[in-house]
Amino acid sequence: MQNVNREALIAELQKRKTKSEKPKFVFDEFCFNKQVNFLRGPGSRFRNAVCSRRAGKTVGIAADMIDSALSNEEVNLLYITITQQQARAIIWSDLVKIIEEYELECKTDNVRLTITFPNKSKIYIAGAKDRTEIEKFRGWKLMKCYIDECQSFRSYLKELINDIIIPALRDKRGQLFLTGTPGPVKAGIFFEYSQSKNWEGHHWTAFDNPHMHLPPALDLEEILKEERIIRGIDESDPSYIRETYGKWVEDKDALVFKFNKAKNIYNKLPTEGEWNYIIGIDIGYNDSDAIAVIGYNTHHKKVYLVDEHVKNKQNISQLVAVINEYKDVYNPIRMVMDAGALGKKIQEELRMRHGLNIEAADKTRKVEFIELLNDDLRTEKFKAFKSSLFEEDCMLVQWDKDSKIRNPERPKISDTYHSDICDAVLYAWRECRHYLSEKPKAQPKEGSDAYMKELEMKEARECEERKKDPYAFELEKLYEQDMEELDNIMDEQ
Q1: Do 75 and 231 contact (CB within 8 A), yes or no?
Q2: Class of domain 265-436
Q3: What is the mean pLDDT of residues 394-401?
Q4: Alpha-carbon distance 493 to 486, whole Å?
Q5: What is the pLDDT of residue 145?
Q6: 3-state secondary structure the chain
Q7: Per-residue confidence at 1, pLDDT binned at 50, 70, 90?
Q8: How many CB atoms lie within 10 A of CB 3?
Q9: Would you tell me how many other CB atoms lie within 10 Å of the CB of residue 97?
Q10: For the chain, how far is it from start to end, CA to CA, in angstroms?
C-alpha cells in the first residue's frame, strides 16, 4: 500500500513539474528590438512602419495582439487588411502558432477569425476591400487597431482611419498602427502618412530580423544573391529596392495601366455630336461586381469613362437592378460581360430570365489590348472623371516582375492587387469604335466667298468627270436624285 501511494505521489509530482515547465509567453523576449520599439516604445498613439518583405512586422503584430489580450480584461484588438481571405493567409497562422506553442487558454473561431480569451478580451481579424466594408467597424470600441499592407488600399483608407478607427480608440485612448511595403509610385494615403510629421514613423528591413540570419540554414545575403540571378536583375532594380530595403522608389513601368492624372482626367464632356455608350461588367462574389460605362462621341476620337459601380457580395437580383438602372440612363449600344467559368451561366440567366441582351466579353489577347488601351492613355484618347475607382486602381495593379523578365511578350498581372473595375473598363473599351469618329467639316455660309469658291470647284470636278465617262456620270446623278427623293419621303412619313 505504501509502495502504491509512493508511486502515485511521484507521478503527481512529475505531472505538476511538467505543467510548471510549460513555456511562458513574454512579448519582449519573443520579439526583436525593432518590433518592440514600434509596438511598445514610448511616443505617439499613431504610428506607421514602412518595411521590406520578411521584416517580421506581421509576427510582431500577432505577438502584440496576444500579449495585449492576455494583459488586459475585456478589450478588443482589430487587425485589418484588404480582404479577410488575405488576412487569413497573412496573420492567422502566426496567431495560432503562438497559441499552440505556449499552450494559451483561449477559444479560436477559424471561420470568423476571432480569438476569445477567458478574461473576455477578443482579437478580430478582418478585411476591408471598399467603402461599404469599412462601415462594419463603425461604433466599435478598440484598445488597438492594426492596418496592414496599407499600400494596397484605395483612398477610402483615410475615411477608415479618420471617421471610424480613431473614434473607436477614444474610450481606451487606444493605439493605431499602419504597416506596409512601399508601392511603385510615390502616391496614395500610406505614402502621405509615411511622410507626415503627425505620425510617428518607423522603418526596418529583413536585415534587422534575426530569424533571417541563422547560418548555415539561412544566409540572407546569399539568398538575395541567388534571387537576383534567377530573376535576371541587379541591386538597382526598383522592385528589388522596394521589396528588400523598404524604400520608396518610383517605378511606373511596374504598373499595368499607364494612367496619368495630368492627361487622363476630364472636367466636362463634349456637348456636340452624338454619344454611344457601352457597358462592361465584371462579376464576382468574394471579388466585387464591377460595372463600367464607357462613352464615345461621333465628333471626337476619344473615349470617356462616364460612370462606374463596384460592390461586393451582391446577389443576382441586386446586380440586375443596377444593370437596369444604367441601361435606362445610358441606353447602351452594347453590354459585355466576363462570361468565363460560372459567368457563362450568369450571363444566360440575365439574358433568358431578365431580358438583358448581354454579350460575352472578348478576353483573348489581353496583354495586347492592355497595351492598346495604354496607347490611348498616353495619347490622351482615354479620359476618366476625377477620383474614379479606375484611376485609383491604375496606381495599384502591377505586372508580375518575374514573369515579365521570363516572357516579355506575355507577362502576367501580379496577384498582389486585383482590380475588378479595370477589367470592366477593358471589356467595354475593346468594343469602342471611337477611332472612326470624325467631326463634320464646317459648311461655308451660302453666298459667301468661300461658298462660291467651293461651288466653282465642285462644278469643275463634275465637268472633268463628265468628260471621262459621260454615261457613268449621268447614272451617278440619277442615283443621287433618287436617294434625295427617298429621304424626303421618309422625312414626310
Answers
A1: no
A2: alpha beta
A3: 89
A4: 11
A5: 98
A6: CHHHHHHHHHHHHHHHHHHHCCCCCCHHHHCCHHHHHHHHCCCCCEEEEEECCCCCHHHHHHHHHHHHHHHCCCCEEEEEECCHHHHHHHHHHHHHHHHHHCCCCCEEECCCCEEECCCCCEEEEEECCCHHHHHHHCCCCCCEEEECCHHHCCCHHHHHHHHHHHHHCCCCCCEEEEEECCCCCCCCHHHHHHCCCCCEEEEECHHHCHHHCCCCCCCHHHHHHHHHHHHCCCCCCHHHHHHHHCCCCCCHHHECCCCCCCCCEECCCCCCCCEEEEEEEECCCCCEEEEEEEEEECCCCCEEEEEEEEEECCCHHHHHHHHHHHHHHHCCCEEEECCCCCHHHHHHHHHHCCCCCCEECCCCCHHHHHHHHHHHHHCCCEEEECCCHHHHHHCCCEECHHHHHHCCCCCCECCCCCCHHHHHHHHHHHCCCHHHCCCCCCCCCCCCHHHHHHHHHHHHHHHHHHHHCHHHHHHHHHHHHHHHHHHHHHHHC
A7: very low
A8: 7
A9: 12
A10: 119
In degrees rounded to 5, what are phi and psi of residue 61?
Answer: -65, -45
Q: Provide CATH code, domain 21-245.
A: 3.40.50.300
- Residue 338 carries which DSSP code? -
The confidence score (pLDDT) of residue 50 equals: 97
Mean pLDDT of 483-488: 66
**36 — pLDDT class (breaks 50, 70, 90):** very high
pLDDT > 90? residue 479 = no
Reported as a single tens digit per residue, the pLDDT across 432-468 is 999 888 877 777 777 787 777 877 787 777 777 777 7
- Look at 23 and 482; give whichever has higher pLDDT: 23
Q: Looking at residue 365, what is its pLDDT?
A: 86
Residues 6+ apart with CB under 8 A from 429: 280, 294, 303, 369, 373, 376, 382
* Listed residue (276, 237, 272, 273) closest to 253, CA to CA: 237
pLDDT value for 204: 97
Ranges assigned E (strand) in 158-208: 175-180, 200-204
Q: Quick check: 61 pLDDT over 80?
A: yes
∠388-389-393 over CA atoms, to 5°?
A: 125
**CB atoms near residue 334 (< 10 Å):** 16
Q: How is residue 168 written as a grid cell? A: 473607436
Helices then strands, counting H and E runs in the chain, come out as: 20, 15
Q: Are 272 and 417 in contact (CB under 8 A)?
A: no
Q: What percent of the chain has pLDDT over 70?
A: 89
- Mean of pLDDT over the chain: 88
